[in-house]
Structure formats: C-alpha cells, structure tokens
Amino acid sequence: MLSLAALLFVTPIFGLALEPPRPLEDVTASAAADPAAAPAGPEVEGDALGPSGADVSPEAVARAAVPDADEDRRDAEQVRRRRELSEVHRALGITTWVSMTVTVLLGFLQYYDLYGIGAGPDDNPCATGHALLGQDLCEGAPWPHRISAITTSALYATTFTLSLVMPDPNHASEGPGEHATRVRAHEALRWVHAIGMLAQLGLGIAQGAGAFGDRATNYEALRIAASVHQYLGWVTWGALTAAGAVLLF
Questions:
Q1: Residue 126 has pLDDT above 70, yes or no
Q2: Residue 55: what are its φ and ψ, rounded to 5°?
C-alpha cells in the first residue's frame, strides 16, 4: 500500500517514465551538444522579438499604431468640417428657399397678368388694363421675375454644390435610425428639385428667346408653355420645401 502511494506521488513529478529530473549540469551539456534540444524558456528581458519572431518592442508597437491614429485624426477633422459646412449649407438653404418663394410668386403674378385664369388674348388682365404688376410689364422682359430667378439660381447652385462636397465620415444616410431615414429622404428630394430647376431654367430661357412665338400670333402655345413653367416652379418649390422641412422639423 505504501508502495502504491509512493508511486502515485512521484508519477506527476517525474513523469510516467519515472525518471527523476536531470541535474542542471546535464541539461546545459545537452543543450550545448544539440541547440535544438534546449528547452524553451521565458523571453530574456530586453529581447525585442516575441515567440514568433515578431518585433514587439515599444517602438514597433508605436509604429503600428500610427496608421490608426492618423485615420482617427482624419475622421475627426472631417466630422468638424462637416459640422461647419452643415451650418453654412443650412443658412444657404433657407436663403434659397426664401428667394425661390419670391420667384414663384412673381412668376404666378406675371402669368396671371398675361393669361389670366382661362382668359383669352382679349380678356386677360393685361388686355383689360388690370395687370397686378403694372401695365409696363405686359410687354418685354418680366424683369422682377427674371432678376429673382437669376438670384435663386445662383443661390441654389451654391447650396447644391456644397451638399455634394461635404464630407460624410459617419455615413449619415446609412442605418435604420430616424436621422438616417431623414437624411435619405432629404437626399432623394434633392434630385427632384434639381431636375425641376434645370427644367425650369431651360423652359424659361426658351420662352425669353421667343422659341414659342409671340402673344399676338401664338397666344395658346405661349400660354401652354407658361403653364408648364408654372407647374414646374411649384413642384420644384414643394420638393425644396419638403427637403428642408424633413431635416429642420
């Protein structure tokens, strides 16, 4: 019984072969004869190489961390720049909306004076002397509407361009959140009012250049072109209004 207990005690110490550990002198001599047989020991203090041979010195760790630090700095800079440009974009957007509101109202008044509500060439407000903007604007270029349209176009082009160049490091339109949904709606409406602006400008320039004739001989064609111009104006204004409201409210 004592022999069995002694066997159980020495087995985990000496191994299953029941060989006692060799003296340190024997281990050193064996390692000198066969370096591959030397037991792996802990890393020597000051050794810059890890178990796999990789450089784990403080300098190497610092060098490996530099790309991440640079990327974090770039992201922080982009976030700061987006915040600043967003404030400018918001101010320009509101100014553009005000200018476009004035433009579509002046366009409606100009349309009413020239064509009335279902009126013909002889009974529209200009023909009867009841033009709301004055009889002087019944002929020639509608300067109040034209100046307002040019101002709106310049403001709109600046605001639209700014929306395209703003950095977006956090990908604000991605994800299921409410803010991301609002940003996606804002971006979708952006293309609606952009197409509307281009169509309006093209049609307005064509009308001003006399592409549809004159009111004396082509009254109906001019009225239809002016009506389409009106509809496009209100649709564009509505899309711009919705695009701003979805972020502001």
A1: yes
A2: -80, 115
